[in-house]
Amino acid sequence: MKLDRKEYRALCKEQEPSSPSRRTVPAAFAVGGALCLLGQVLRTLFENMGLDEKAAGTAVSISLIFLGVALTALRLFEKIAKFAGAGTLVPITGFANAIASPALEFKTEGFVLGTCVKMFTIAGPVLTWGISASVVYGLALWLAEVMG
Amino acid sequence: MSRSGDTLFFETPVWVNTWAAAVGTKEGQGPLGSYFDYVTRDNRFGKKTWEQAESRMIGLACEAALAKTGLELSQIDCALGGDLLNQCISTGFAARGLGLPYFGLYGACSTMAESLILGSVLVSGGFARRTLCLASSHFCSAERQYRYPLEYGGQRPPTAQWTATACGAAVLQNEKTAVGITAATPGRVYDPGITDAGNMGAAMAQSAYETLRTFFRDSGTGPKDYDLMITGDLASVGHGVVTELFRRDGMELGDRYQDCGMLLYDQSQDVHAGASGCGCSAAVLCGRILPDLASGKLKKVLFCGTGAMMSPTSANQGESIPGICHLVCLEGGL
Predict the structure, then answer these.
(1) Which residues 262-291 in chain B show a CB within 8 A of chain A?
(2) Closest by alpha carbon to A108, among B49, B181, B109?
(3) Structural domain of residue B40, as residue ranges?
(4) Which of B19, B81, B85, B101 has CA 20 to 30 A from A89's CA?
């Protein structure tokens, strides 16, 4: 039987299991929410310790990044992420994991050519866009100030 | 040896002397665990890198195969094999230890069937007394090349497959044994336009269907003439597609049609659609199918190695995934 690509695609679609969204979406919501709650707890804690609002925010980011990297190194992150999906991927913990995991994986190719070169293979696009956007934002701010 | 259409017929079969499979921990815990000759407790096989680990696994499979019938490396005229890694390094480095004339093959996950076909041709044509045919894959070495680091917390879609940590090795020869290769169909490449690298079963299913159909046409046989038709690693999605394509042709494949990718792990092992990788079909062949052919439990088997001829580069460039399927007809109890 000859099928064109569209018919073949439809046939495959019938065989493909769908994502178990009933389990995965609430799991992502719960874990992602818990991470945000942890962030808020840390923020309040840092503010009570005398840090101002901006410094406390930075300290929260640093703490969550540390947590993400530490869990990655202990091989626990991937297990939590398997359950949590976007719940661990979207917050800053996911970014930390995206940098730490290739750094660990490629250390067999050496510190320079492995770890250093491969460290940004996953997170690279985020950095490129983040840095580019900050330049555009800075220019816009500067122009707004010059124009009064 | 003769040829009809795409199919090669070995009127004097090429005989299988010995075989063995070496597998990783997860594969050892699967339903076929007890059939494998070597199950490691350490997926690194005592080595520093995953690539070295895969090479060691290949070495272990070859050693186990030769030990079974007391063959020496000097009695083998050449080795043919491959794996999934760039430049086939795992097999190339394993061949360094074998010291045999060596052909490195790349047929993606169809490599075991490809090596059996070429090994048979060499033996049948009188160019080798014995050939060592093998294929391997290692989850950890494949994952870092094709997808993400092991520690990365990403999600796999339900259609994704799990690259098997496994190697199968078999020795073909011109002296009679209980199991022979009587025909083979080298596959053509088909591309049904699937672009999702997380859905390779769907990408390869068409080639499996076409190769099987070609073989039935060339040999004048049909599904009912075989005890088992087994594809390499189409997993649940591809298996369903092949079954449905034949159904639309008015042929029910039924239980005689199976897929190695659905046999290697069980549901609880969280491999989504099933197993993949060169080692999947190679290990199922050498661990399960060949022993059953030798004991006479199976009489006629069509072993269809399936491969997705893609790379991360082609996927990033938006190319669709071409599939290939090589078929080998094995007969037992001869």
Answers:
(1) 273
(2) B49
(3) 15-173
(4) B85
